[in-house]
Amino acid sequence: MSHATLSPKRSSLRGATLPKWFAWAVAAGSLALGYGISAAAGLHSDIQWALIAAVLFVVGSYAVSAKVEGGRQARDRTATSLVWVAFLLAVTPLASLLWETAERGVKVLDGYFLTHSMGVVADAEPGGGIYHALLGTLEQVGLASLISVPVGVLTAIYLVEYGRGKLARAVTFFVDVMTGIPSIVAGLFILSLWVLILKMGPSGFAGSLALSILMIPVVVRSTEEMLKLVPNELREASLALGVPKWRTILKVVLPTSIGGIITGIMLAIARITGETAPVLLLVWGTDFINANPFQDPQESLPMYIYLQFGAGSDPAYDRAWAAALTLIAFIMILNLAARGIARWKAPKTGR
Amino acid sequence: MDITTQKPAAPPAPGPAAPEDKRAARGATRPGDRIFLGLSRGSGIFVLVLMAAIAAFLTYRASLAISKDEANFFTSFEWNPTGVPPEFGIAVLAFGTIVSSIIAMVIAVPISVGIALFITHYAPRRLGGTVAYVIDLLAAVPSIVYGLWGAIVLVPHMDGLYGWLDDYLGWTGVFAWEGGPARSLLTVGILLALMILPIITNVSREVFRQVPRMHEEAALALGATRWEVIRMSVLPFGRSGVISASMLGLGRALGETMAVAMVLSPSFDISASLLDAGGGTFAQNIASKFNEATVMGQDALIASGMVLFVITLLVNGAARLIIARRKEYSGANA
Description:
Radius of gyration of chain B: 25 Å
Helix content of chain A: over 70%
Shape of chain B: flat
CATH class of the largest domain in chain B: Mainly Alpha
GO biological process, one term (chain A): phosphate ion transmembrane transport
Function (chain A): Part of the binding-protein-dependent transport system for phosphate; probably responsible for the translocation of the substrate across the membrane.
Number of domains of chain B: 2
Largest sheet of chain A: none
CATH class of the largest domain in chain A: Mainly Alpha
Distance between the termini of chain A: 49 Å
Oligomer: heterodimer
Keywords (chain A): Cell membrane, Membrane, Phosphate transport, Transmembrane, Transmembrane helix, Transport
Order of helices and strands of chain B: HHEEHHHHHHHHH
Number of strands of chain B: 2
CATH architecture of the largest domain in chain A: Orthogonal Bundle
GO molecular function (chain A): phosphate transmembrane transporter activity
CATH superfamily of the largest domain in chain A: MetI-like
Distance between the termini of chain B: 26 Å
Strand order of the largest sheet of chain B: 1-2
CATH architecture of the largest domain in chain B: Orthogonal Bundle
Number of strands of chain A: 0
Membrane topology (chain A): Multi-pass membrane protein
Number of helices of chain B: 11
Structural class of chain B: mainly alpha
């Protein structure tokens, strides 16, 4: 059989298929039609015409395909179009979130904004900045890391290197449970212990205590995963040379997995940097610079956004967006750096 | 003795060699070993103590408040813990929390599964990788930013959709709309859906990746279309993974605070309509009421937080159980 018999007249074993550009054509058509309908009906919301277009796209490709290709192919096409629609439905708002933050944030974001506090700036007037919030965030997150990193890494070492039996199983289980604690509950716990029972006032340190409750389980989990990746041969080789177990862990196991551990810690830091609820309950927020995290209210970046949003004037909104942009930038840089380290220092497993 | 206890799914052989372990158990002879073991075991115990303390202190403060409560804590619609007599109940909060989370789940789960399938089975490889990476990063966007965006950008955009729902489905009562800003449970649910999308997508994607290649190829060899492959081999394999991913997302939606506090305009009643402003959630109520709360008010808020804590524990525990069960059987599958 020559090829010529296959391509123009299809063999009877294969049903008719629509050309490749069909999906794109239907997509373009339904977009145009959706836009046309909403323009004709005088709908002004972007959400509406996008939804109309999405429905037209799914229904249209099903109808045509059912006619030409038959039921099974049509169902396959519907699934494909639904998956694409799901993708677009989710990506649009998320893109809008990043875009709006970047666009509105750059308005007042400059050197002045980063180096001044809100000290004598009224809510409704422009000016002011986030210096006090940056300072507070760095101190609170730093203190929280000082508490959680040793506890988290040591717990992970216990679970991987020593842990057998009931205690280890209980720790594993409760670390899992801790991962799911809502941040506001962590804040309430420190509130009940630190403020209501020990009668301490609000301070950055109280906030970091709550933040470390959120951070410890993340550090334990990621460190545990990394330690498990260290090949047993390395441990055995070291132990066979008569090196004590603790030195084996410190000199062989940890250096092998340090890249991954640091990555996990940075991701955990990125996670708690954006937490607002515990800060709201325990640190309160202030417009003034307070460099002492152990006494009196402090500000933090997320708290700053919340307070500026609450102030409700246009200049305050601008400041809130600029602070949000700073916060996202900070977190994204941490994330990207963490992934960079992970790739660069990937644990050398096997060969 | 304990070889079977832990980590069934760890790819490299778990833990160090057994003889070494016995020595550690007998009490390490070297001081360095003893100190190190003590430190790391101490950290583990510290985690347990911490969890116990959280439960204990929350229960203690909550019991202080509930003992003074003159209304029924579970069914009252009031929130007036400083009144004489103090009356407060969580009915409205429980309703709002559950309804907004259900809306979030209804929207987020199908879309997340869709995106996960898109990444693993539909998108060109390059695009799929990029999308996965971006979704990973989005999981890190803090909730306060979602709240800011929701309150300033999303709320005004909801008007058109609300008008529609009111026009066509208003007769049901659930979608009736009196006008006014869209600071309602429905908008909150939509925003929560966006916030939990990344986590559900990420977990589902991982599960779909693990589907044995043989299953898919077998289906293809029988002449299945792509959708039939997914329905016959991918979805059945991934079902428990998707369920547990959804539960993790649900846990997050239940406890979400700032985004809800910024978008919702709260009130202490239950309205039949999802579109009218009003209602509240546990976490939102704590954040909004905290500022003016006295000690008694704070205790009442802690009592409501306690309920939230228990609910999230149950949801997360269920998710973990499903994941753990799945690990066993996928291990047998490998």
